[in-house]
Amino acid sequence: MATSTVLVPVEEYLSTIYRPDCDYVDGEVLERNMGETPHARLQGFFVSFFQQHEDEWDIEVLPEQRLQINPRRYRIPDVMVLALPNLDERIIRTAPLLCIEILSSEDRLRKVEERLRDYASIGVRGLWVIDPWRGTASSAGPDANLREVTDRLSVPDTAISISVPEIFAELERLEARARRSR
Asked: What pLDDT is stored for residue 8 in this prediction?
């Protein structure tokens, strides 16, 4: 059975509140995979980690914030890190320093790579993909090609850096804590 795609005008997308928010790609409103506990735990960890470094690194961290790629494309990174000062826009239109995608169990690499190409196309310096299911972290440069990282993730030309083992140790700590409290 064939499915048909319903195209939505960009003005309608921008004036609609989706729960959870959706990407918008060339007229299509695209749902994002999320809602799983490991995803949420890592997202919370990254927000907290970057908030602890906001003054030191002169940054602001935003979870699930709309980012305009071009007039017909909007993405919602799981976590976005902006250099200060920023324009305090309702929708971010300037390239963040970093976009982090945390994989859900249903995410497919092809779709994630498309997102990375979008981020790279506007000049995002750091592109990180965290897979809590496999316990891996990857980074991409301006070419948007993913490379697995086992030691430290960083953002070129910034002080932003984090130990990959620290990320997964924190995830394990959070999961063990949840198991103990049952």
From this structure: 93
